[in-house]
Amino acid sequence: MSTSTKDKQGEIEAVESLLAQLRAAIEFGGTPAKWIKAREILDRHDIAPGKGQLLVFTEFADTARWLHGCFADAGFSVEMLEGAVDHKARHELQQGFLANHFQVLVSTDAGGEGINLQSAHVMLDWDIPWSLVRLEQRMGRLHRIGQKNDVFIYHLVAPETREGRVQG
């Protein structure tokens, strides 16, 4: 067998191995590790459907929509704030959250500035922004005058990702 043929055979085996891993992941339909960790955090803070509030930040609207569905499927009352939400609707979301009309607010960084959400005391950063200013802005949504509880902020980082390698 020539070197070229051996190289091609090695590549084929590597691709077949990767395909097998992908098929197994699809068949398993596994629960993402971050979602499992988020549920553990909710349990730790006694946040359950109908009880307690949570603020979740993500950088991406697609992720926010997915998280909205996850929380809704788990029985939480949930709303979403992202860049397409106009000023009036944004204000209504803020007021609704502060009045405890819903439990979970999933937000992109569109909700990271100029909005008070101190009715919650637990926040999840689903992904970490590269800008420390944005990170500080996110955390500032709960650290407000009128906050009655200790604030808990969790940064969810998957170790086997680019984000995990940077954090590690």
Automatic annotation (TrEMBL):
InterPro entries: Helicase_C-like, P-loop_NTPase, SNF2/RAD54-like_C
Signal peptide: none
Domain Helicase C-terminal: 40-168
Record key words, sorted: ATP-binding, Helicase, Hydrolase, Nucleotide-binding
ATP-binding as UniProt keyword: yes
Keyword Nucleotide-binding appears in the UniProt entry: yes
MF terms (GO), sorted A to Z: helicase activity; hydrolase activity
UniProt-recorded name of the protein: SWF/SNF helicase family protein
Native source species: Candidatus Neomicrothrix subdominans
